[in-house]
Amino acid sequence: MAFRIYTKTGDKGETALFGGRRVPKSDLRVDAYGTVDELNSFIGLLRDSVENQHVRHILAHTQHRLFTLGAHLASDPAKHPPTPDLLPADIELLETEMDAMDEQLPPLKNFILPGGHTTVSICHLCRTVCRRAERLSVALAQSGEPVEDLALQYLNRLSDYFFVLARYLAKELGAEEVVWKTR
After folding, report:
1. What is the SS3 assignment for 30?
2. Which residues pair with 136 in a beta bridge?
3. What's the start-to-end Cα distance of the chain, in Å?
4. CB atoms within 10 A of CB 182
5. What is the value of pTM for the model shown?
6. CA distance to 83, 141, 164, 179, per residue, from 109 (Å)
7. Phi and psi at residue 23, in whole multiples of 5°?
8. Is 38 within 8 Å of 70 (Cβ atoms)?
9. What is the DSSP code string of 54-106?
């Protein structure tokens, strides 16, 4: 018999964490790892829309790190969840990438709105979903649930990366940055 994706065990609004414990689908932990999964999906869309092979490589690397971060968040903390596959070097990579892109960009003098090019807008979607994943993970940690400090740092830096990447790709694509203007 073939593997079925549906289990029918979530039909009453509960899901199982890795380790077996059942929790409501509205649980903060489920919201946190679900948002990391959503972010990973948007990154896949972004990667598919970018031609720059170096950027595509960094985005693929990021997707792998986020998948293990999601597995960490999806695990029952009482069952010794796996440590997210994150190293300080992963944060340093994001910082190095941002610094390299920033060197090629004009100084930021205005607030920038999402838009100008579809790929740039997808970067901003990634940035905002990443910020939500970070907020939910921080809330989970503040509720007393274990969340690795490195995971919180990674999400924080990753959202910054997407902002700089949006500016960088706008320049690379010849798209004008959409500057916020008051009335």
Report:
1. helix
2. none
3. 64
4. 3
5. 0.89
6. 40, 35, 14, 9
7. -140, 160
8. no
9. HHHHHHHHHHHHHHHHHHHHTB-GGG-PPPPS--HHHHHHHHHHHHHHHTTSP
pLDDT higher than threshold 60 for residue 9 = no
The radius of gyration of the chain from alpha carbons, rounded to an integer in Å, stands at: 18
Name the token pair of 19: 């380790």
Confidence grade of residue 27 (pLDDT, cut at 50, 70, 90): confident
Are 130 and 161 in contact by the 8 Å Cβ rule? The answer is no
Amino acid in the structure at residue 51: E
> Rounded mean pLDDT of 149-159?
96
* List of domains in the chain: 21-75+86-173 (1.20.1200.10)
Q: Rounded CA gap, 147 and 141, in Å?
A: 5
- Please tell me the distance from the alpha carbon of residue 9 to that of residue 42, in angstroms, as a whole number: 27
C-alpha angle 108/36/128, rounded to 5°?
Answer: 30
